[in-house]
Amino acid sequence: MTERVEGHGGELALAALRAHGVREMFTLSGGHVFPLYDAAHKTGFPIYDVRHEQSAVFAAEAVAKLQRRPGLAVLTAGPGVTNGVSGLTSAFFNASPVLVLGGRAPQFRWGSGSLQEMDHLPLVAPVTKHAETVFSADDIPRAVTAALTAALTPHRGPAFLDFPLEAVFSVGDAELPAVPPIAPIEADPDEVAKAGGLIAAAGRPVIIAGSDVYAGDAVDALRAAAEALAVPVFTNGMGRGALPPTHPLAFAKARRVALKGADVVVVIGTPLDFRLGFGDFGDAKVVHVVDAPSQRAGHVQPAAAPAGDLRLILTAFAEHPGDRADHADWIAQLRVAEDAAKVRDAEEMAAETDPIRPARIYGELRKALAPDAITIGDGGDFVSYAGRYLEPAQPGTWLDPGPYGCLGTGMGYAMGARVSHPDRQICVLMGDGAAGFSLMDVESLARQQLPVVIVVGNNGIWGLEKHPMRAMYGYDVAADLQPGLRYDKVVEALGGAGETVEKAADLAPALTRAFDSGVPYLVNVLTDPADAYPRSSNLA
């Protein structure tokens, strides 16, 4: 039985949002969207506001990622929407079901030069799954339902609606559409069987599992498939922690050895992009498992590419009826490489150097972080070390900008993470370059009593640019920041707390104070500018 709803446009929108499980709003105040605030205020719907619209979208994305449900950002017209486009684009690349509701200048005088008058749709349509202007209050529930259905349908992604002033301020009367079920995509059974056969028959198979494994609630199915077929597993993105570090098939540090020696590489729930050498694994056959046909790589010809619900595909792999090769020797070979790398990493994470090396920071963080801590990476060079030294113990505990590589996610992700998990540690790993994008939103966290810990690796340079530019040209420009800048003082001025650390021995007590503080707390660690993450450029 359908329900009829009455009210102004904000009330109609909120009724549809609630029906889809949306439980909070992230925003920066703007008159074009006052009715949405009115509806939320009158019904006790939580509103979290920020100092830059991109942080509102990033906060909504963190909710969408961590909770696997829609996240909501509300942005005022014109610059409010354009300031949020980087967040929308990141959500698009990350397949995050974010809904952005935008204000819009009045339609009845369109073209006359109203405040912040612009057509948003041409800007946002390329980076959303659904983009629409809703011209009447009566049509708002239908539009919200359509946008959220598109956002939640694999391959997931953001959606956008904007409301002209007269539509959102007007009173309407409409049926509240039923929330449609999202039907799983059934993969071609022959393609699934082909892929399962390749994995089972391989002598040296490797699995690389990415963010869509978590987003598609396929973590348990991944473990079952890996165990049934005895295949070593590496992860990236939100796939990290899908197998706990203690699992006999979980690997993190022997990836180079694995990919060099593998005869079948199975990439599940992540694109064959620059993070995976664009899918070029030498002579190895590639099995690419994706959650929708649109995600099949166009630049690589895989040996098999089943597309559909990852839980169903991985369950079919686990139940593969044919013969299965013995992978014990291959797993043992990788374990030797993994253990040797762990020894080297342990030495680096314990280094007593002056200035501090980034590895030592991660060595102390490994001791300070609880198994269910949410760790957020917002940076280039400094955060690159996190992939090497941090090993999430549980799925759904790691957030990074993803393949779009947009800096400035940190404070928005921190807000969304704190709202999602009020009782967990929230730790943001931030380069000093990235700090310039969003640190002002510490004020938003402090004012709304949302404590997080921020660890800044402060080397006074743009590390991923300065060193490569020097190698290429013999000089560098536009790659220096103020050495020793007191980002902790910035946080103190914004209502938080912090300190600067210059000696490795002072790291552990500083982190203890940070996690015990109950306020946004920044640990500003002065690191060695000569210590750059050892990897080639990803510019190709």
TrEMBL record:
Query: Matching InterPro entries, A to Z?
Result: DHS-like_NAD/FAD-binding_dom, THDP-binding, Thiamin_PyroP_enz_cen_dom, Thiamin_PyroP_enz_TPP-bd_dom, TPP_enz, TPP_enzyme_TPP-bd
Q: What class of enzyme is it?
A: transferase
Q: Does the keyword Zinc-finger apply?
A: no
Chain ranges of the Thiamine pyrophosphate enzyme N-terminal TPP-binding domain: 9-121
- Boundaries of every Thiamine pyrophosphate enzyme central domain copy: 193-316
Q: Which NCBIfam families match?
A: PRK05858.1
- Family membership noted in the UniProt record: Belongs to the TPP enzyme family.
Record-given protein name: Acetolactate synthase
